[in-house]
Amino acid sequence: MKTSDFYYDLPQELIAQTPIEKRDTSRLMTLNRATGAMDHRHFYDLPSFLRSGDCLILNDSRVLPARLLGQRLPGGGSCEVLLLTDRGERTWECLVRPGRKMRVGTRLTFGNGELTAEVTGELAGGNRLVRFAYKGIFLEVLERLGKMPLPPYIKAELQDRERYQTVYSKNSGSAAAPTAGLHFTKPLLEQIRAMGIAVGYVTLHVGLGTFRPVKEDNITDHAMHSEYCVIPAETADLINRTRAGGGRCVCVGTTSCRTLEAWAGEDGRLEACGGWTDIYIYPGYRFKVTDALVTNFHLPESTLIMLVSAFAGREQVLAAYREAVRQKYRFFSFGDAMFLY
Fold this sequence. Notes:
Low-confidence stretches: none
CATH architecture of the largest domain: 3-Layer(aba) Sandwich
Strand order of the largest sheet: 2-1-17-16-14-3-12-13-15
Oligomer: single chain
CATH class of the largest domain: Alpha Beta
Shape: globular
């Protein structure tokens, strides 16, 4: 199957640059996988598509304000460091700018010296190992000095950085938001629970690899990025009970879906686990545990639109995307949502 098989034409003006004022007033396209029927609703209508006895699985990862702007020492110019992976002992794998001036031994300072760092290694592909020095708790320092690492297609400045967090975010570690969850409000989740729908949580720390384009002509030649994820025992038990009782496992976002599919047994059963996954889902994949999916609209030719196509059929998904363009839905991270069931 070719990467070009997942292309669709998207006008630039449909790429959402800012969050909608009220999270759950975003639009919601629904797609019935069996019939291909589409409907146009709002996200606050999602409960009408859920059933008592279902479970809703959310990714509770929290985005790190991982973009640091500083200066090179001594007396150097400006620099930018984007935290990717915690390597331990105060060392992170990072993207850096300007790369040609950030060689091993380069010293950096941020926030008038509150945070300092040194480049300690260069990795294949150009990433750097950077060791930080600070007083106190690193996450608190980041909260003061860091900026949100918004996707490259968002050019507008984010006024309230909590709008790039879900209302249930808890475990810091993502370099990008699990964006399907951005539409939920606390009252909407309370309404869902009151309907007899259990809510469970997994953690997958979203990496910037989620934005990496597929450059190979054949999709099977693409090397999938790895991300760290955790399924707690109570979530595994909840999903097992739900499906055994005839309820559906409704995954919120491709991140929740990938987490469950990576660790589910062939019979769909789950156990508590954690670790790195590079699961790559494209048409032909047999889903083990995901029965319905809430997701945003994804980039053309991306691994994410391939996952959605595996779940609901490539031709149906592309037809839905073409309809979303005609209906002027808002696309990508701050855009509207789909419910596939």
